Structures are given as C-alpha cells and as structure tokens.
C-alpha cells in the first residue's frame, strides 16, 4: 500500500469482525486493534432501553475509540508498523444517527467531527455483511451476556443502515478500497478455503496499491 498498511474490518453486530481481524493479524503479522465493547458500562442498559441510554452509550464509544486510534497512530502507524482493526470509527455515525434524538445527534455530530478531523484513515476496509438469521445465530453462539436482550428489529434495521452507509462511503471515498464479503455465503471460521479466499483478495489489493 502507498502508506503504512491500516486495515479496518467492519459490519453489523455478530458478523465476525473480531474473528476476521484476528486471522488477518496472524496471517500478515500486523498489530491487532480490538474495539472496546463489553467495557462500556452503559451497553447492557442500552439494549434494554435504547432511547434512555443511547447518548451515554454512544459518547462512551466515541471517546474510547478516539483514544484508541490516537494511541495507534502515535505508537504504531507513525513508526511504520502495520495495523488491522476490528472496527472503523465511522461506525459511530451509523449507530448514533439511528438511536439519538435529533437535538442529541446534532451535538454528537459536532463532537464527532472535531475529534476525528485528523484521525488516521484506513487504506483498506473489509465490509462483512449478513442476514438477520445469520447474525442472530452467531450472537447466540458467542454467548455474550450483554447481548442477550438485543432486539431483532433493531439488528435488522442496523444491517440496512450499514448497507446504506457503506454505499455512500464507497461513493464519497473512491480512494479507499472496500472489499465486501457475504457472511451468508462464506464461513471463514469453519471453512479454511473461505479464509484463504479472503486473504487472496487482500493480497491482490495490497499489490494494486503498491
């Protein structure tokens, strides 16, 4: 890649972002950046009452993801060390726009753009998408207590929000390549061939951008 490799894996809850990022880190010997999820003290309450706890939840995620990216930029990217992350901070916009009231969202957007104005931008994004049934199955399999009350309606809407956001992102950021994989059609955890196919696509993209 033209700059120090910085790959971000994105997609809705339960799609397999962390698992794939871990495999990429192992394959390419990149530093792995995992998003903070269960450490969010508001998340359990959020899944029980989205309207009441959305602002606290989103602000916690925003501030922590900002700090993580700042540390990654200074500690790794600035020193030429490649990084793969299991999220992109742009996801905050997807969740916040869906859950916050209009007045809260306006304030949130102002803070978001101030914090992210000079954040490092990935030079490759991997977008994992899947149907509601696949997401629910995978969420159930990983058995996080904090996710047991996720509303399927909310999760379905989130998948649609992600698709819309990614379509706009691709149009607005033609300089950032995006690889999209369908989680209903592949299972890179159980099927090594699927994982090798993903690596092949990444290899090709790295060659194209070098």
TrEMBL record:
Pfam families recorded: dNK
Parts of the chain that traverse the membrane: none
InterPro entries: DCK/DGK, Deoxyribonucleoside_kinase, DNK_dom, P-loop_NTPase
Record GO terms (molecular function): ATP binding; deoxynucleoside kinase activity
Binding site for ATP: 11-19, 138-142
Keywords: ATP-binding, Kinase, Nucleotide-binding, Transferase
Domain Deoxynucleoside kinase: 7-206
Top-level division of the source organism's lineage: Bacteria
GO CC annotation, single: cytoplasm
Family: Belongs to the DCK/DGK family.
Family annotation (PANTHER family): DEOXYGUANOSINE KINASE, DEOXYNUCLEOSIDE KINASE
Protein name: Deoxynucleoside kinase
Organism field: Anaerobacillus arseniciselenatis
Lineage: Bacteria, Bacillati, Bacillota, Bacilli, Bacillales
């Amino acid at each position: 890649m033209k700059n120090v490799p910085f790959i971000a894996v994105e997609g809705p809850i339960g799609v397999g972002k962390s698992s794939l990022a871990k495999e990429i880190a192992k394959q390419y010997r990149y530093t792995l950046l995992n998003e903070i999820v269960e450490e969010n003290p508001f998340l359990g309450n959020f899944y029980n009452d989205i309207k009441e706890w959305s602002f606290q939840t989103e602000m916690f995620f925003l501030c922590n993801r900002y700090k993580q990216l700042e540390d990654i930029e200074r500690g790794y990217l600035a020193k030429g060390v490649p990084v793969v992350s299991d999220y992109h901070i742009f996801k905050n916009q997807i969740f916040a726009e869906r859950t916050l009231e209009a007045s809260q969202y306006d304030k949130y957007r102002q803070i978001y753009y101030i914090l992210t104005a000079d954040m490092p931008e990935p030079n490759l994004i991997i977008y994992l998408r899947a149907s509601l049934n696949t997401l629910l199955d995978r969420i159930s399999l990983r058995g996080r207590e904090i996710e047991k009350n996720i509303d399927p309606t909310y999760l379905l809407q989130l998948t649609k929000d992600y698709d819309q956001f990614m379509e706009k992102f691709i149009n607005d950021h033609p300089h950032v390549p995006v690889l999209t994989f369908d989680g209903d059609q592949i299972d890179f955890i159980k099927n090594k061939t699927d994982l090798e196919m993903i690596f092949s696509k990444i290899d090709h993209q790295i060659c194209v951008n070098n």
